[in-house]
């Protein structure tokens, strides 16, 4: 272990408001060196356990522009898998913040370029055990800090319906590859809407499960209270099938509190007979909402009557405040856990990827200036608020989130699902390479107005493609009771059958 010098200890003491003389610091330095660092030396020599790797894979390659015209692939590979299982014959892409042993993981940033995980994430092993064919890693936004699709250091991910427009983020590549039909399914991650937003703008189904249903083990986190991982696909059946495989406790993720997988495909009845559906007024008519989006989603929601449901307009006033809770928790949580905590943070039990800690800390020391504008504003704002207000607003936001969860739960006493637009407006144009900072930030934030709140409360929520306007997809968000993904899937499947699946055909590129 490197022993701390007096100047280092003086700086640390000052940061904690300690006034210490040089003699006092020297005394503590001696005590640290003689009594505490020995434990670090001993642990440094011990061999830590690694998660088992069950299947062989090729190192793979980064595809050429000709093979990857929308820049959705980060890495292509070939992974062996079980011969029989629920996912037999299905091609699957992983968001590139998910560890796949022996295959590079960049998480959208040069900070991690060259890092190769030594473990498989739990979701990876579960997919392979059920015969799923993992074909590669999908590009994601820089450290998953953005809602648009122009911040990855491999270049912008282009919308499959119009390459001048954003694909949404941060699971941008995952959504595009599914929309194109290059894979049948993908895994995305969601802290403020990063599964649902790109699913909306790319015209596919994307489900953020209840918080803790799917283990986050082996995935680069943002804030443990917001981290969700879930399925993306062109059909509700594929979403349900993939969720069956990846859901359930793994004994390694502290986010999990007993939720178990269910036979979700059994709930796809094609009807909503007896269901009560609430259209949440506050999810519509934001100052920046587009009328065609609001109208399309309302019409789609009202069509559930045809499938046997009762549909009502309801009001949940506190919904409008939810985005502010999401902003605070995401900003301060990300700054402290991811940036100050070198990707993993502290004070939680589970499997820690020490190689990832080392790689991220080293990359930040050398290349922090290359971070996206959204990542930088997160660091500056989050660290400032922590220093100036000692985490008071992060704590208050979480306390208010308990109240907000209760407000939604109260609505769920009368309604089986709630509906609103996933994103209040259609995909936006990608900014120019030399766009001003203000424009970059504006394009990166605000997309999550309706989605972020359900990361805070933990309720499951799903994007359901419900129409087009000016050639761009529109998404309807269906929200359910905590732990009841099957109800959301049943409603989504009924709508898919009612519309003949016409909104989720694979996009053909000219």
From TrEMBL:
A GO term for molecular function: amidase activity
Enzyme Commission (EC) number: 3.5.1.4
Residue span(s) of domain Amidase: 75-489
Gene3D superfamilies reported in the protein's UniProt record: Amidase signature (AS) domain, Glu-tRNAGln amidotransferase C subunit, N-terminal domain
Lipid metabolism recorded as keyword: no
Lineage: Bacteria, Bacillati, Bacillota, Bacilli, Bacillales
Annotated source species: Sporolactobacillus shoreae
Keywords of this entry: Hydrolase
Cited InterPro entries: Amidase (IPR000120), Amidase_dom (IPR023631), AS_sf (IPR036928)
Protein name from the UniProt record: Amidase
């Amino acid at each position: 272990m490197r022993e701390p010098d007096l100047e280092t200890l003086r700086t640390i003491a000052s940061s904690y408001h300690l006034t210490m003389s040089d003699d006092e610091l020297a005394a503590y330095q001696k005590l640290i060196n003689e009594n505490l660092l020995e434990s670090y030396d001993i642990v440094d020599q011990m061999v830590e356990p690694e998660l088992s790797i069950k299947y062989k894979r090729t190192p793979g390659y980064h595809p050429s522009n000709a093979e990857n015209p929308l820049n959705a692939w980060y890495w292509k590979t070939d992974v062996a898998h079980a011969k029989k299982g629920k996912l037999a014959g299905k091609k699957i892409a992983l968001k590139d913040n998910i560890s796949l042993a022996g295959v590079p993981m960049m998480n959208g940033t040069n900070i991690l370029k060259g890092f190769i995980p030594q473990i498989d994430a739990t979701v990876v092993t579960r997919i392979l055990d059920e015969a799923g064919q993992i074909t590669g890693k999908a590009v994601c936004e820089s450290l998953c800090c953005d809602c648009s699709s122009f911040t990855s250091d491999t270049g912008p991910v282009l919308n499959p319906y119009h390459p001048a427009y954003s694909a949404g983020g941060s699971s941008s590549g995952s959504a595009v590859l599914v929309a194109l039909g290059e894979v049948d399914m993908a895994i995305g991650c969601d802290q403020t809407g990063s599964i649902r937003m790109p699913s909306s703008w790319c015209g596919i189904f994307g489900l953020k499960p209840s918080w803790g249903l799917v283990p986050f083990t082996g995935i680069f986190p943002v804030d443990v209270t917001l981290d969700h991982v879930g399925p993306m696909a062109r059909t509700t059946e594929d979403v349900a099938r993939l969720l069956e495989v990846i859901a359930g406790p793994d004994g390694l993720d502290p986010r999990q509190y007993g939720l178990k997988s269910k036979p979700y495909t059994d709930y796809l009845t094609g009807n909503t007979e007896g269901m009560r559906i609430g259209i949440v007024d506050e999810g519509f008519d934001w100052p920046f909402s587009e009328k065609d989006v609001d109208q399309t989603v309302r019409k789609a929601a009202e069509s559930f009557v045809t499938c046997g449901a009762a549909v009502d307009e309801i009001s949940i006033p506190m919904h409008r405040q939810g985005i502010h809770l999401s902003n605070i928790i995401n900003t301060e949580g990300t700054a402290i856990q991811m940036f100050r905590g070198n990707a993993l943070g502290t004070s939680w039990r589970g499997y820690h990827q020490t190689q990832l800690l080392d790689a991220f800390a080293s990359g930040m020391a050398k290349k922090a200036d290359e971070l996206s504008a959204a990542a930088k504003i997160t660091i500056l704002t989050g660290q400032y608020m922590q220093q100036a207000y000692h985490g008071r607003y992060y704590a208050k936001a979480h306390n208010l989130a308990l109240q907000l969860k209760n407000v939604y739960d109260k609505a769920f006493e009368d309604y089986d699902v709630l509906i609103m637009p996933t994103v209040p407006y259609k995909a936006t144009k990608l900014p120019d390479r030399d766009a001003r900072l203000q424009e970059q930030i504006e394009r990166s934030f605000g997309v999550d107005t309706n989605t972020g709140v359900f990361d805070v409360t933990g309720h499951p929520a799903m994007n359901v493609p419900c129409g087009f306007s000016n050639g761009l997809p529109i998404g309807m968000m269906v929200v359910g009771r905590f732990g009841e993904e099957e109800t959301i899937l049943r409603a989504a499947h009924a709508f898919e059958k009612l519309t003949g699946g016409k909104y989720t055909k694979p996009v053909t590129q000219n």
